[in-house]
Amino acid sequence: MSERVKLYQKISAVMKDVEYLSKDDKVEFSNTKYKAISEEKVTSTVRESLIRNKLVILPVEQQHKREGNLSTVDTKYKIVDIETGEFEIIVSSGTGADTQDKGVGKAMTYAYKYLLLRTFAIPTGEDPDKVSSAELDEKQRKAEEEDAKKFTLVKAKWETLAGTLDGFEDWHGKQIKAGVTNAQMDQLLAKKLMEKKKESA
Question: Which one of 40, 84, 118, 201 is at 20 to 30 Å from 152 when CA atoms are compared?
Fold first, then answer.
């Protein structure tokens, strides 16, 4: 039996191990409500079978682009039989919408999730096509508007506390890089304003 055939037999074994994954997440938008399956559930379930069958999946090449708030990632992976070193190249793509710098990460997560679902032909009952692009665009637009409002509040609170906007852009940029949202910054500065009022009372 060739090493390539052994690799395909192991892939088939994973398909037999993971015959179905039920949805464990809820997505709600306007009048649309549907269940989805999380990346965590897909990865953790398939991971157990990969370990058992002595397979590893490695990203070996990636390209990404960003248009507006939408990041797209195209990734090549190797699925490797660690007993023989035989491998097959598999590909996947993903998109992620984000107003800050997390779009690529979201796209990578989406790409890996669907790589596992499609490579091992795992049915979930999930049908993303049932959610129209217009609905998703509207959801994204509202999220961006809300984020912009929070940014305005953060800026105003900073100016109230410091009496000037000097240093604001540098501070705000560092907070964003650290993964702090405008909503969280607004809460933080609101707390500081409350403390300042108590001190001056």
Answer: 201
Tens-place pLDDT, residues 92-115 = 998 887 777 778 888 898 899 989
Residue type, 176: I
Q: Where are the alpha helices (DSSP H) in the chain?
A: 3-17, 39-52, 103-119, 133-162, 168-177, 182-200
What three-state secondary structure class fits 164? coil
Helices 168-177 and 133-162 pack at an angle, to 10 degrees, of 140
Name the architecture of domain 3-131.
2-Layer Sandwich (3.30)
List all residues 6 or more positions away from 27 whose beta carbon is below 8 Å from its beta carbon: 33, 34, 35, 36, 131
Q: Is the pTM of this model over 0.85?
A: no
